[in-house]
Amino acid sequence: MSDRRGRRGGDGGDRAPDFDDEDDPDMGDLFDELAELEDSVDSDDERERVRETMQMAMEVQDSEVFGRVVFGFDRSDAAEALLGSLLFGIPMFVEGGTTEVGEFIAGRPHYLLLTNALTITLAIGILYVADFQDVRVHNPILGVVPRKLAGVLTIPLVTAVVVMTAWGRVDWANPELAVCQISVALVPMAIGAALGDLLPG
Fold it and tell me: Which keywords label this protein (predicted)?
């Protein structure tokens, strides 16, 4: 984390930090400081108070769509991800091309692995690289998997399985083919879920 907290004067630290124009602190810096504070406190009660402060800071952010600090994955995020995955997924469900591509990669396991790797890479890129929002990883699952990434991959996957099965777009008598066809549909659905989660802010 870059140190953007500023430098105090030589008068014993009584003055407020003096920030250069290009180093003005933003909400990202505030969240960095709160995350460090959360790691340094001793009691569970103090940690909970820090988390509540982080949540409050997120709620008082301005109403701009982009440039906000976001973390975690709650019911509102899940609903937005579901909407985004459906918007991108329904055309895939009704298009014959999805089943044709699934049939093509069914006999080529390395293509299936590449397709799934592409899905995960695109989701990570949209959430953490493209910089639509300042997305922070907070309390990852098992200490490793970011909750937001898990959410925007799991929701479109479950949606694809349920809808494609209900609409007769996959035949589970041939599970290998069904998995491949769902993997194809999952590529744009994961993009839609990630964008749906981030764009409303």
Answer: Membrane, Transmembrane, Transmembrane helix
159: exposed, middle or buried (C-beta count within 10 Å: 0-12, 13-18, 19+)? buried
E strands, the chain, in order: 69-71, 134-136
101 and 151 housed in the same domain: yes
Asked if residue 131 and residue 32 are part of one domain, the reply reads: no
d(CA 114, CA 127): 20
CA distance linking residue 130 with residue 142, whole number of Å: 25
Cα diameter, the chain = 77
* 76 plus 11 within the same structural domain: no
Residue 156 and residue 105 in one domain: yes
Quote the pTM value: 0.65
Domain residues for 30?
1-60
